[in-house]
## 1
Amino acid sequence: MDNMKKILIVDDNTAVLEALSLLLEIHGYHPVVCETPTEALHIVRYQRIALVLQDMNFSADTTSGEEGRALFYQLREINPHLPVVLITAWTELSTAVELVKAGAADYIGKPWDDQKLLTTIENLVALGEAASENATFKRQAQERSQAHAGADLAGLVFASAAMQRVVDMALQVAHADVPVLITGANGSGKEGIAEIVHRNSVLKAQPFIKVNAGALPSDLIEAELFGAEAGAFTGAKTTRIGRFEAADGGTLFLDEIGNLSLDGQMKLLRVLQSGEFERVGSTQTRKVSVRVISATNADLRSDIQQGRFREDLYYRLNVIELAVPPLCQRQDDIPALIAHFLPGRELSPHAEQALRYHSWPGNVRELENACKRIAVLKPQGELQADDFALQSAEQAQMQKHEPSKQDIEHSMRLHQGVVAKVARDFGLSRQALYRRMQKFGIEY
């Protein structure tokens, strides 16, 4: 019963309370009943109510609807997003219409139609949850703005709680002089997080040098990272400054560190341990002071077990790990990113659904490229799912894989136990997710 939505029924007629309670209980709701406005206000203050069904009169000799009007406005003061459905006789219809204009969700006449009432409740509960979530997002955005006042976010665009946690941690570790390892899929925004760490550190005025370690040929790794004297190898006509030397006093960002060859890993380990190196073709030992931020899309622990990555280098690089979630696990970022890439454009509801259901294997980079294509091919008008070359939400949902126990547990951790967001990750209803959690023995 803990997972059932609580529906508060307020009516001084016990027959009405019993009939509505039975109807709601049969259809999976948790009815909470009371006979007076005072009791109703107390319940709404101290219980999590999803919707209120309230009568318009609570005294035997009253038919004006004034008591119902007063209760409605008091409920609105406690929770402006709480859906309220008015139960009214025809004599109070004008009052009910007035309250609907003032924000009541709907009204039903006595006697009511069970199926119509259930449909109304189902729709309003979903809308109420959406309104509550939107209010939460707005509050989080305000809190984020206050928390990040004075911070340099390097132009990173995000709106999700998942990215909020990553950014908060990046700002926290920025002030510590320790190596940072950023993990995540290609195109998820690892470089942006690295820039946030650098721009908010004491080294922000110093160089920020980027190098794709995995793209370096094994025979040029040493010269690229540490430099080379003129004549050190064929084609080296002048002295070349290496990336470590260029980053001296600042930050070196080593991207795709998991693709670095074992020979390159060994040479990198030495300079990380001592700060010392020699240019190719030189015997003079040089020393630098560099903060290293590395990034990878690989599972380095698995690579260590398979002999593809040095364990000692891993622990040297990974003092603090920042894990950037893929775009499919931070769906609240999608509208914000589209507003950034295509300012002033409106999304159709169907397009927004399709965007949320799409798996985004290319992450933010894939979405950015889609927006660039739209900017050229459809520079005006409301954005549709077809503009992004996406399947419909229904097609995408059908193709989503059946989540495993590990998938659900990971998403529960990511969303801090918010079942609505976990269900949305997998394109499931809450009820369908609860069934799978019970099947796997996952506590909630």
## 2
Amino acid sequence: MPPGITLQCPSISTHLNMHYTPKIDDYVKWRNIEGWVYYLDEDHLTIEISVKPKVDNLVPMHKKHHCLIVVNNYEYGELVYVNSRRYKNATNLDDMEVFVREF
């Protein structure tokens, strides 16, 4: 993201009525889906809703298929923050160490 650009959304992210700014590795709810913020820039973000291993090795640097939903920046106000993860490459949910960010 270019310097000086801040992404903000006016959503009511929790029951405490806080201002939420999306970040990669946040777990969010949006409309009828939920998942991890996988990519973020000034125009849009993607929410990862599923991952499955690849059966081929056509692109060796990518080991999994990621199913992503695009959310445009004008829709950020609909995002609801749930929690964040510290360890992106954990092998299971227990190792991911989920926590709630402070705003």
## 3
Amino acid sequence: MWDDEECQGLEDPDLFTRVEKMEAKATLLGEDEAGKVDAIPVYLTKPKKRDYNARWMVMWQEEAEGTGLSIMEQAANKELNVTDFRVRDYIMCKAGIGNFVHVSQTEASRWLGIAQPHISSSIKKLIKLGIILAGPSAGKFKTYQVNPAFVYVGSLGDGVKKRKDAIKERSEMLQ
């Protein structure tokens, strides 16, 4: 039933070293539907190193059912100016899981090189348009949530669900 080639690693003194390095050939025993045991060679290889030291987010391109929240709808919105887009992008990049973010307008002003009153004005406009949502104050910082109908920080599956819920909420609010 077994041939030497399939079992060659069993007497290999370097087998355990190679297994530790995730580079080895092993034999997997399995049963088919008839109950016959069969040996299948399996090759273990070291997984490729994936260096994802960056945060990511999902942005929705298509229209958000007339809510004005998709990238395309925002680009066409004549109420938004370059400062508004820069403030929006700054807030988006600060968002964590669930899209929540603490924003110091003074810090945003320094980082973006925009006067604090303009930051405040842009934030108010973004809230009015539903692009960001106002949250409770946390000490001297205000908290916001980037609307999940526009962008989501986290897994794609959660993002799709959160987007549907946010679009529904926004549509009901606009009616």
## 4
Amino acid sequence: MREVYRLIAERLRGGVAFAVGTLVASRGAKASAVGTSLVVDAVGSFAGDIGAGCHEGTIVERALAMLGEDATLATRLCFELDDELLAGTGCGASLDVVVWRPQRAFEETAQAIAAGERDVTFDLDGETIVVGRRPRLLIVGATALAAELTALAQRADYVVTVVDPRPPFATRERHPGADELLLAWPDDSVAVARAQEAGAIVIVSHDVKLDLPALRTALASFAAYVGILGNRRVQAARRAALRAEGYEQAQIGRIRGPAGLDLGGVTDGETAVSILAEMLAVQRERSGEPLSRSDGPIHPSTSSG
């Protein structure tokens, strides 16, 4: 989503003709968030995906017509993504999409959405659209696995902070993609502040000198996901150390370790996939089971707009 709003800001700044299709309301299974958009230029190329399936062609056609007519009045399109009508390809949702042409004043809003540093609200065709800020991930341990997890998490819209007090580890050469790289202990004030902002904390340091202060910081936070790398012997030792310090079982029970789903991963990249998968399942309150083993909805049900 954010890349599309970055493109919107660029086109407004450059005076390029384009139109936008924006999801403003959805009912039933939710494949995309309200506010998700696609951008169409005057030659018919487009960027973005709003989860409308085969109906996205209709959105592009309407956008091209609007550009051809040099029209500025927004048009609302309503789609029923019905399984029977779409030969089993629908998701049982109904979507309202507004095709519109942003004006120059929208550039600042588009830039703010692209940055993701705060919640952004704007009005479109009688609907109030709220695009939330990017969620935050704190990784303790500037390891090779941390670099892999950073890249994957950013694709899932996370702002990633990597913290490590060891100068040879916490370098921009090793972690060029991190949004923030802290040369600090995980219980230093700046790391604690990042933990309080984080929706997920993952400890990949593999070092007791870092693991225990990191766990203390994580357990004092509101993070929905607290994961730690390490084999089962290491996991038992870390939990025993916390119990000896007076932590209760309910607190220790928040820790997910070994971190990740059982995907059989061996490489750093594979391990990062398993950790991110568990993070998403926990934060979205899903089971993490294979979809083929359940008959429930693939996407959460919702009613918005």
